[in-house]
Amino acid sequence: MSDGAMKRREFITLVAGAATWPLAVGAQQRPAIPVIGYLGSRSAADDANYVEGFRQGLAENGFVVGQNVAIEFRWAERQSQPLPAMAADLVRRRVNLIVAAAGNAPEAAKAATSTIPIVFSTGGDPVRLGLVQSFSRPGGNLTGVTTVTRELDAKRLGLLHDLVPNGKSFGFFIDRDLPDADERIAALQEAARTISVDLPLFNPRTERELEVAFATAVERGVAGFNMSGTSPLFTTRRALVTALAAHHRLPVIYQVREFVAGGGLMSYGTSFTANYRQVGVYTGRILKGAKPADLPVMQPTRFELVINLGTARALGLTIPPGILAIADEVIE
Fold first, then answer.
1. Of the given ranges (25-39, 71-85, 118-132, 186-200), which has the lowest mean pLDDT?
2. Which domain does 14 fall in, by range?
3. Domain CATH number, residue 314
4. How distant, in Å, are the alpha carbons of 168, 172, 175, 231, 233 from that of 227?
């Protein structure tokens, strides 16, 4: 080989435009940086804030995307059907770790591999879903974060009832495709019986069905809505949901703050961005050598009540002093 050829440099570009490492011909190749497969049940636009939280968690462990770690994203665009094939594709590509982000992504990732580490975010009970053996000792190749949304549904119903004490019927928006939908419905029905209110269920799957659900609720005398924030339809149609609530003058309590910041009335739940930061923290620790089986499933320890007073006034509602006193944030 000529001297000129010996001096030529080749460049290998790692996946997802993460980094470009120059390799001199004949020189020792630098080790490839780890690649994370990110299996998302929603879309890149939907999860932009959550991905940013995930990157922050990675950075806390010294991993910076584009420098010493790469990410291959797969987005199911709010459809469950593509997830198994996407998970299988990430396995074929031999990624170092899979992040399974909400919806049915954790189950799809688990079915695809028993060896590649998986860090999940789920709104259900990971033990009941069969993802882990226990919270403290997950076992196997999975660990992650649960937002325990089922346990919070009853709390949100209670807050809604405190806001509209004369209400006799409060609708519940639930995505029946969620793996723990039946358990959540049963638990909330029990909570509704405790306070002697009816709990009509609504399961819209399209924007049109969402519009019909609001109109139907008004016809049936529903006094307000408890909305599950984990459904892709609800989380990706925040502007439409809050607009419909305003149009029909129905108080709605949500799971995530973003609805209230966008004009919704009230939310009670955990910070999803903070949860995804923890997913990033766990991902970084596993890339450094920790085993998923030894990392306990994390649960949120702090929940936030956010109230939009402007929306309350527009609906003709007065927020009880007791609710205002425990609010973490009040938007004027």
1. 25-39
2. 3-147+273-294
3. 3.40.50.2300
4. 17, 6, 10, 9, 11
